Amino acid sequence: MRLRFFLPLLFLTLAFSCNAETDASGNQPAEQDQKFWISLEEAQSEALDKGKYILLDVYTEWCGFCRRMIRETYADKRVQEALDQYFYPVRIDAESSRMVVFQGENYTMADLALAFGVQSFPTTIFLNPQGEPVALQPGFIEPGRFHKMLSFVGSESYRTQTFQQYSESTR
After folding, report:
1. Which residue has the higher pLDDT, 50 or 27?
2. pLDDT at residue 24 greater than cutoff 60
3. Is there a contact between 139 and 122 (Cβ–Cβ < 8 Å)?
4. Residue 74: pLDDT above 50?
5. Would you say residue 26 has pLDDT above 70?
6. Which are the contacts of 166, defined by CB distance < 8 A and separation ≥ 6?
């Protein structure tokens, strides 16, 4: 009698755990398929040479909104075009002990996130070609708004107007 109830329960548990594993691994290739991510070291070198900005996407593995940014926002065609035009995009895992070099100094990714004052995930950091912070935006950002933010920073409109003024002028 117990076996009759146990087997369906076991089946459902296995089905949900298989789906969870598929979803988790399903998100991973999508992140890796986006070939526009480059190393921080490469971004700094290229940014200085070509005068482009650096975008730091600070994330954690467990962050649902970080995965949503990858799935929805970074996958958006207009966002990708703005990234290609204005930025060298880099991902920083805020819990990683992996070493990176920023401005000639060695940091773990976790320490670099702390140095920028990141307190929540995802956080997007915009750096000028010299590696100086221009803006820091915590939280999930919808594709349309993110495209506008990329254009605002990349076109250097932030130097002469607020984001609200820019948004109203580009409707």
Report:
1. 50
2. no
3. yes
4. yes
5. no
6. 148, 152, 157, 158
Q: Would you tell me the crossing angle of helices 143-154 and 77-86 to the nearest 10 degrees?
A: 20
- Using pLDDT thresholds of 50, 70 and 90, give the confidence band for residue 126: very high
- Enter the tokens of residue 94: 């805020």
Cβ(90)–Cβ(38) under 8 Å? Answer: yes
Q: In this structure, which amino acid lies at residue 52? A: K
CATH of 33-169, one of 3.40.50.150, 3.40.30.10, 1.10.10.60, 3.40.50.720: 3.40.30.10
Residue spans per domain, the chain: 33-169
Which residue type occupies 75? A
Alpha-carbon gap, residue 89 to 126, rounded angstroms: 10
- Residue type at 34 in one-letter notation: Q
Q: Is 97 helix (H, G, I), strand (E, B) or coil?
A: coil
